[in-house]
Amino acid sequence: MQVSSANGLEARPTGARYYVLAITCLAYALNIADRYVVTTVMEPMRLDLQLSDSGIAFLTGIPLAVFYVSLGLPLSWLADRANRRNILAASLVIWSGMTALCGLSQTYLQFLLARIGVGIGEAGGTPPSNSILADHFPADRRAMAMTIFALGAPLGAWMGADMAGFVASHYGWRAAFLALGAPGVVLGVVVFLTVREPARGRLDPVAGVAPKREGFLRAMAFLWSQKACVHVIMGGGICALWGWGLIWFAPTFLQRAYHLDVGQAGALLGPIHLVTGTAATVVTAWLLSRPAFADPRRICWLLAAGVALATVPSFIAFQTHDLGVARLMFWLFIPALYFYVGPAMALVQNLAPAGMRATFISVSVLVANVLNLIVAPQAVGLLSDHFGGAGGPDAESLRLALLILAPTGFWAAFHFWAATRTLVADQARAIGAA
Q1: CA quadruple 286, 153, 28, 169: dihedral positive or negative?
Q2: Which residues of the chain have pLDDT under 70?
Q3: Which of 51, 216, 393, 429 has the smallest number of CB atoms closer than 10 Å to its CB?
Q4: pLDDT digits (tens, 9 = 90+) for 68-120
């Protein structure tokens, strides 16, 4: 079966489109797993390396984040001009190999350098993947496709929590990095050998016009003029600050507050990520495929309402002293970590001209990861150390720090709502600018 593109060119067969979607989804899963395995093993790592909460937050978050965000923009600029398949394949091999090296590290410095390598590799993952998918699915199907792509997040979080916790409880925290790093090297080779580079902008409704390849400053100026895009990027970024910031310390909190070991904490959170994250993503993909959501403003209203409602259980999860209540709140809160990712990516892609898509998504990823990997862990770690005082951080100091972070979900919801005011006009501008 062949699918006709909006500009009259013939798209690739349906099976090939969904193969690329599945491969990029799996790459995204490994990206998430390799990044967040540290959250599962953070407490045994902290004790082994004799660090404070702010110290372990710095080691696990900032070295990766600084190189991830600093290289993300130039690599996305390159992805708007060079072969995106090759960039993705090389990045997969680099970040997966460096994850394995984290497991071979014996000192603080060795782990620090390997973690920097993970950040360098991951910088070339999401922007080319999103840009490739945008040239396999037309505008009215991108929200659905990007939401399926986002299934990689709950799958990766489950791998980084449940699988990593199991390995760490039996073989030590270093073995968890080895177990998650090796498969990515193999997948990188598969991407290189089996994924073809699509023509840019072939499914856009601009007949017979090749996409412009603007300079970086021009792309940034156009992004800033797209007010709806700025709000969507901020909404997604603050969601990452809120939700993933809380989850960053959740395994450590469970181990301290309820005296669970690393395997038990991972086994509690892992299935929640997998089941609710997958369900939330699939249901969202189905909703966005309905005719009612052809109006992009309804997507933003859905994101705003969902995040605002989930903010309440995210607070209760860390306020309660009852493990049963906390578990229930995690079941209600964790789905919100996933359902916004695909729709937000699709909105950003539809608000960008074809020749700027990788740059736009890279800015979105940069904002999310600065807030998620630098601001949230370091702020929570510093607050926990402060509340712990001379006795050092403990369950109660960490609880107070997390409760300060939890209400920021309402801030994210505001930005998604604010995007609706100019969304339709800004989407039309992006098509015209192509």
Answers
A1: negative
A2: 1-13, 201-214, 432-434
A3: 216
A4: 878 877 887 788 788 889 999 999 999 999 999 999 988 889 999 999 999 89
Dihedral, CA of residue 222, residue 224, residue 229 and residue 232, to nearest 10: 160
Contact 313, 256 (CB under 8 A): no
Tokens of 15: 């099976």
Burial profile 66-103: b = 16 or more Cβ within 10 angstroms, e = fewer? bbbbebbbebbbbbbeeebbbbbbebbbbbbbbbbbbb
DSSP 50: T
CA–CA separation, 319 vs 89, rounded Å? 43
Nearest to 364 by CA among 340, 386, 387: 340
Distance CA 168, CA 166 (A): 6
Would you say 231 and 364 are in contact if contact means Cβ atoms under 8 Å apart? no
What count of other Cβ atoms lies within 10 Å of the Cβ of residue 209? 11
CA 15 from centre of chain = 26
Contact between 369 and 240 (Cβ < 8 Å) = yes
**Rounded-to-integer distance, Cα 331 and Cα 314, Å:** 10
**Per the confidence metrics, is the pTM higher than 0.90?**
no
Inter-axis angle of helices 53-79 and 216-225, nearest 10 = 110
Nearest 5 degrees, angle CA 69-CA 348-CA 411?
Answer: 75
The amino acid that residue 108 corresponds to is: Y
What are the tokens at 334?
């964790």
Q: What is the DSSP letter of 289?
A: T
- In the numeric block, the tokens 């001379």 are attached to 390
Tokens representing residue 321 in the block = 């002293």
Decide: 395 and 252 in contact? Cβ < 8 Å: no
Q: Residue-wise over 234-271: b if at least 16 C-beta within 10 A, else e?
A: bbbbbbbbbbbbbbbbbbbbbbbbbebebbbbbbbbbe
Q: What single-letter DSSP state applies at residue 420?
A: T
In whole angstroms, what is the distance from residue 364 CA to residue 369 CA?
Answer: 9
